[in-house]
Model the fold of this input.
Amino acid sequence: MPERRHITGFSNPLVKFLRSLRDKKYRKRERRFLAEGLRLLTDARESGIVPEILVMATGREAHPLLDSLERAVIAAGGDVVEMDLEILAKVTGKDNPQAVAGVFTEFDTSLSALDRQAAPIWLVAQALRDPGNLGTMLRTGDAVGAGGLILLDDCADPFSVEAVRASMGAIFTQKLALARWDEFIGWLRAGDGQLVAASLRDPLDYRQAPYAAPCFLMVGNESQGLPEEYEAACDLRVTIPMLGRADSLNASVAGAVLAYEALAHLR
Amino acid sequence: MPERRHITGFSNPLVKFLRSLRDKKYRKRERRFLAEGLRLLTDARESGIVPEILVMATGREAHPLLDSLERAVIAAGGDVVEMDLEILAKVTGKDNPQAVAGVFTEFDTSLSALDRQAAPIWLVAQALRDPGNLGTMLRTGDAVGAGGLILLDDCADPFSVEAVRASMGAIFTQKLALARWDEFIGWLRAGDGQLVAASLRDPLDYRQAPYAAPCFLMVGNESQGLPEEYEAACDLRVTIPMLGRADSLNASVAGAVLAYEALAHLR
Done:
């Protein structure tokens, strides 16, 4: 195995580059993002995706998965770099950083890259602002065997460290598409697809609804919910019981409750 | 209405006191916590709980709900204080603070204060570390008509600003109890109660399980899950399908999927 580069200073240009990837503006310009943790990076590799740069902490514990990750990165022509754990902490912005992180190229996020027939369920989120909610929806999508997550209008960046972290690796297994509403609804109606939203407007019980694949389950912004126009364009508006004082659930929770219900009907 | 106190400086002792409530150590010592937003404070009032101190931003928009909140606080012998929005931002630690916040007395969080027959569903979380997940579980509990949330072992503080915010007011409608595992299982077995956990160990489909009220739905720590011993002590171990690469859901999502399933059986 070739000699690894060792980085010892905070002012190293690579460290600056890595840190800049925590800023959305730089991520977009570089079309790169950061993911941390051996498990996430192993999930990525098992999905056929290896980082361009693999960053490891000096003094980390040896691990066979890390060895095979390193070999995969080198085989793909990537870079392997070592740095002190405290520098890695600055890079990932976490007090207790994982001992390994990777730089990945952003994926294609166009609707046209999606094969809607590839999965019975797709998740759709509109103006979702919380990166934790976004990552959680990716994670739920993975669990229900969804094809991916379609982000409408101005959502949090799915390539932020926080969203990638909350996805627990699902960023590498779920397809991602970013689109405006008009573009999405045009694409959806040009083929098969049932659009479903949780709504307070219709009395159709979410457990009795006639879900049909490919089923697109849509949740709205954390504080505003879905625009009325978007709900009106849905094929189904289903009601999730709300027995308490509140009239809504956390967006990623609502998405998960719908997704597991649809899964039970469509499996 | 009596003259309100106006606070103009960051160094005012009350401002210092309010800011200290963002720190768990001070919250515990003072047995007080902060909640922000007209909607949350109105939810609290409708549940019969008014803040000891009501803090309002100068220059806020008038609102009938705010007027009645102010009257309720004064009628209860509480304090009403005005301060600049930028000081309020320092108090709540939010860039865009809501125009109103309140200081509340912590509730009784002993198991013995719970009436287990008061609701068909109770949520239980073990070593839940993320205040957002904790607040989200309270919010889900409210939605499914649960009695409350029981926090086992070392959980995040339910009275942190972040947890209160994520609860969307459910901190005022759900009962809360804090206990160690031994204390909890002793209390549970001294009366009626079915203890249920999502588990990978048993093949019982979560949709086919014989849920019975009062049903205690337990989720584990975000990264470790439940200790084996806790799972073994459950009456039911149910399986939620995992069709992807991952073998787990976000803790608050798992709790919600279980809670909505149990609700459908127990309603």
In short: Residues 8 and 83 of chain B are 6 Å apart (CA to CA). Chain B touches chain A at residues 43, 46-47, 132, 136, 139-145, 166, 168-170, 173, 207, 240-246, 248-250, 252-253, 256-257, 260-261, 263-264, 267 (CB under 8 Å).
